[in-house]
Amino acid sequence: MGELFRSEEMTLAQLFLQSEAAYCCVSELGEIGMVQFRDLNPDVNVFQRKFVNEVRRCEEMDRKLRFVEKEIKKANIPMVDTGENPEVPFPRDMIDLEATFEKLENELKEINTNQEALKKNFLELTELKHILRRTQQFFDEMEDPSVLDESNTLLDPNEPQRVAPLRLGFVAGVIGRERIPTFERMLWRVCRGNVFLKQAEIEDPLEDPITSDQVHKSVFIIFFQGDQLKNRVKKICEGFRATLYPCPETRQERKEMLAGVNARIEDLQMVLNQTEDHRQRVLQAAAKTVRVWFIKVRKMKAIYHTLNLCNIDVTQKCLIAEVWCPVSDMDSIQFALRRGTEKSGSTVPSILNRMQTKQPAPTFNKTNKFTSGFQNIVDAYGIGSYREINPAPYTIITFPFLFAVMFGDMGHGVLMTCAALYLVLRESRLMAQKNDNEMFSMVFAGRYIILLMGVFSVYTGIIYNDCFSKSLNVFGSGWSVRPMFTSRLGGGNWTFETLRGNKVLQLDPTVDGVFKGPYPIGIDPIWNIATNKLTFLNSFKMKMSIILGVIHMLFGVSLGLFNHLYFKKPLNIYLGFIPEIVFMASLFGYLAILIFYKWLSYDARISKDAPSLLIAFINMFLFNYNDPSNKPLYTGQMVIQSLLVIIALACVPCMLIVKTLVLRRQHLWRKNLGRENFGGIRVGNGPTEDEAQIIQHDQLSQHSEEEPEFNFGDVAVHQAIHTIEYCLGCISNTASYLRLWALSLAHARKSRPSPTPPHPFFQGLKHLLFLFQSSKVRG
């Protein structure tokens, strides 16, 4: 249970692995995930390590698998993911995997190349088919007698008509539909209007053989006279990436060519279908195992990368590794090494040797599916030092609760709880589906956080008496208006004329019977119809935010005491923790006490005379107690507040200067009063012989780190930064907790319907209903 509230106890261990068993042992250690390998070759280049060739082979296989995965996704074939965790293949199986991936990649590349060539040929034939059809329509229109008669009527009848034989050349092709206007303008300007362009759109989009995109194109035919214009036209077509096709001049030749093109298109379409079917079969077979292949290859790559971190002895028969591992999992690591040795068939067992070191150990916190989300939130802000208190267990309560303070709505909380409860109850089925949606994955990973936030939101919604921005009158309001109609002297205080003439009336709690008592739980529902509801909730939630913030900050500072006690640092307790807690309690803890005091001391009859806490807190720092507009809250307030301010100010130099001077004095004492050992006799607080051997061994060890040299300037600057940050943080963090109040009011305001006037139709309907009810009453 202790590991839940504090990071795991770690130890540095040395592994001696036989060369033939090292691969399987590292694989088993990776499966349990309880060790962190240290790099024992920091000065060796990555490309000069022993297993660099194996790592490259794994990267090449991973590249081939990514190519296969890309083709599978392009074909919209679902990849099977059963959640299986396959075992790592043996090193001898790498050749078979490489051969399988090489064959699959080459087959897919060959299919893609052939398919691209076939599609390109199919596109050309399709474009040629449309050209032959459209050009035939163009020539039919030009040979239409009605068109010729209309053109002859435009000529002068008195002028003798001469029909001179005129032979025009033409080119036909296909161009992108969006380039037609620019293409036409360019032809007109370059050829100076001496060409005739006729174009028609291709109704069905054509498939690009390279990108597989649908492209809209148009057929065009250009008539011109002379070779000079012909060269210009061809260059313009080339510049606009238009494809030119040969087009016969006679009708019969065009008809015969069209028949041949249609026959070739049918044959080509059949070949394309067969090629696509073969490609689909190959990809469907690969989609069943591509996930398993990825896991195997990446596990192999991770193993060889880890083996590159190890040292190899002179005989090349043993690998030496150093790992950080939890002390509580040493038995599991021993069993994993034993399984790896047996799996490899080696007869020499692997050795796990625990080492003594002064190096700082890494921080490791064990988590489960419930605590992992909260641990990730804590780690996002910073990971604690080794063996420090872990804030994650406390965050399980504080994080959802502070969210609920801002999101206090019973109705919305129920909806959130139901949604999170569905994710929790169906988590096994949802995890098996392997949803790739990033938003859903994020929500699913925080399902337990959302569940607790919803439950706490229901609780705070009950306290706020807020359900979809409406108050629930469950126990009956604690206010009554009936006594206001009867005066204490027997006369009428409120009459029906008073109700008709005033839109807003004030309930007087001093009249007997008006205020019957507090609402049993939460806020009285009568505040929902009060005009000063926002003013009341502002004061209530602002004070509540300050109280919660001060309690939360005091609790966080108190956790540091357990760290100081665990690490046996009394100096941090007396010159760190105590001044910090006194500083915060003297100022902001006192403010929270004033809030409770004001709530208990002032009732409805004297609430108008209550002084402002904000003004009183400001005057406390200014030592201003002669403010006539803000009377003291209690007797002796001036003495107590002045004493608290002086105590808080005295804590600052204690944290800033005294601790630094004491640290310097301790360093000088250790330096001048060194420990000595004469003739085997221990002098003063010197180490024993066994301790001296351990110290000597640590000093001679290659990886031992010396104690950092004491630098007074660095320590002073560090302590100054910490003190300033803490003092300013107390102020800024207290102000930051006011966002609980601000966001709570913002949520309540946004959840409430806007006060816009209703539609005229509904106003008229409401008026008709009122007239109907009035006539019914009169009748």
Automatic annotation (TrEMBL):
GO molecular function annotations of the record: ATPase binding; proton-transporting ATPase activity, rotational mechanism
Compartment list: Membrane
Pfam families linked: V_ATPase_I (PF01496)
Keywords, sorted A to Z: Coiled coil, Hydrogen ion transport, Ion transport, Membrane, Transmembrane, Transmembrane helix, Transport
Coiled-coil positions: 94-121
GO BP, sorted A to Z: vacuolar acidification
Transmembrane segments: 401-425, 445-464, 546-567, 573-597, 638-662
Main localization category: membrane
Membrane topology of this protein: Multi-pass membrane protein
Any one of the GO CC terms: vacuolar proton-transporting V-type ATPase, V0 domain
Family statement: Belongs to the V-ATPase 116 kDa subunit family.
Role played: Essential component of the vacuolar proton pump (V-ATPase), a multimeric enzyme that catalyzes the translocation of protons across the membranes. Required for assembly and activity of the V-ATPase.
Protein name: V-type proton ATPase subunit a
